[in-house]
């Protein structure tokens, strides 16, 4: 049993908003026989676990406690047990333990490291021959080939990459990447898939990264096949915010979440709680080509949700969209660090690749402009963004016509 002591405030969800407090429908993308329960805010977790054991005969697999969000996961294939839980006043909600997936790339190309030079210009630095994603977010117009950025570059910020782990020995990270915690069974947190390393490189790599001086902390919640459980993601969020709070840098902390699954009110409540604690959260919009309201954490209003564009400033065909998307960033054919060696690279696509541009940009702005609330930071990113550059957004979808920009004046 794992417990967390994260002290976060969370407004209670009004009873009846979601109908029955037990969601019984289970699709294919759920952990077999897996469930997540949330208890009422005024209940003590240990007391409820004892009552559940006595009344229903089930034991918890993991527990989570985040102030207003407390609960446990369990295995069950008996509807009678769900009936018992639904009748218990201490139980706030029960839902299937949905599977979570890396926002899967839609193609990949192996590639060599870029030929990069940098020249100082006052407090701004120019990185020549940069990848297009970095060039795009540092210029108002498309087609540039250099990345222009402030030399602060994410210094003294902390990006927790909640993903498949990180290849910490990769030269892109210059010793700034560490293994935080693994919530994947029989794993030490190293990346055995590549996705987390790629996202980390985009956020903070020396060549491929937006915030080149930021610290990367790997939080492994997805395995070698790029999948994991919602309960594992909840643990990862709690651990990251606990760690940042205990170390005194929560107001300089970013969570990068290039993953998603079915809509989950529990996941969204955890996102809200983490943001209220002071952590900025960048979440991939998802690659289903549908409204982002259908998936979590993308649908959490408190997350800064990121859609993907291509080199022609078109919304990527795979990118989710809608009013819950906050910003777009480059997400096609993005080159970054990979696994297999200390210099490996890969070029892949997805909203997973767009998301760490915003995670890095958040860290960058914290270092350049100083800390601010996560909500205000997302608004600042929107305020700086290049407006009305995306030409294929459909009327009525509600997506913002905003491409991320770092505000350097180019």
Automatic annotation (TrEMBL):
Keyword ATP-binding: no
GO biological process terms held by the UniProt record: proteolysis
UniProt KW keywords: Hydrolase, Protease, Serine protease, Signal
A Gene Ontology cellular-component term: extracellular region
InterPro entries: PCSK9_ProteinaseK-like, Peptidase_S8/S53_dom, Peptidase_S8/S53_dom_sf, Peptidase_S8_Asp-AS, Peptidase_S8_His-AS, Peptidase_S8_Ser-AS, Peptidase_S8_subtilisin-like, Peptidase_S8_subtilisin-rel
The keyword Cytoplasm belongs to this UniProt entry's keyword annotation: no
GO MF term set: serine-type endopeptidase activity
Signal peptide residues on this chain, from the entry's feature table: 1-19
Family the UniProt entry places it in: Belongs to the peptidase S8 family.
Full protein name: Peptidase S8/S53 domain-containing protein
Taxonomic path: Eukaryota, Fungi, Dikarya, Ascomycota, Pezizomycotina
